[in-house]
Input
Amino acid sequence: METKRIAIFLNRRRDKELAVTKTVVECIKKYGMEPVASFPLAYEIGVTGFDEKEIPGNVSAALSLGGDGTLLSTARLLFKHDIPVIGVNLGTVGFLAEIEVHDIENAIKSLSTGDYKLTERMVLTAVVERSGSIVFSGMALNDVVVSREGLSRIVRLKVYVDNQYIDSFPGDGVIVSTPTGSTAYTLSAGGPIVQPEMQMMIITPICPHILYSRSFITSPEKEVVVRINDDYPDPAIITLDGQEGFEIIAGDQIYVKRADKEIKFVSISHLNFYDVLRAKIHGWNTDSR
Output
């Protein structure tokens, strides 16, 4: 029987002395699996290494050590490789990273025995069209954000679903979110909280300069189009999961739709989505005080 390989991805700022990471390595070995990591981390923790541009094909799962941002970057990296991801929370709130440090060994044991379930999360693709040509494309697990840049003035964005005009939103921008992203930027902008396994797109204006603006929910079979007014004088920006960005200008059109593939998450916790949500939000509120 082939030994399971578990890839480790680390936000070094969250584990500067590598104490947690070394514990993870020992636990993986203890339960009969092989830890691997990308260079240069592999050298530091004494495991088989690989180049992030050439992910090994025989990796069973990936452990992301950090916060939600680390988990997002790991999931984005592994999107095309169909490798399931699980997050260990070394950050603050950690909506996506469900495993806390004190549960690491139990989580790794579950990985070794197969005592877990896989959940699939919807992914978005985004394309920027300028004068009839595609100038940028990318993917997002959480959200696609079209917003004003830096000291720019209010941006006016026209939003369409397929060919149907929704409205024009003057303000800081618009978020197009997946259900997974509903607990991220969309939550802060007043959008709804949605179970992450659902299939839909959530359109939420950011600080709109109108009184009646609310989020819109649309079918995943639709295509959301965001257009910058032709007379907007300043640059704006599209960002994907807060990790990849591209400057956009007046007249650009952004096309957002569901990707053909989904990202697999490993779920080990006995808690359901609402248990986790309640615990995280209460903890967030306590921390903020």
Observations:
- The radius of gyration is 20 Å.
- DSSP finds six helices and 20 strands in the chain.
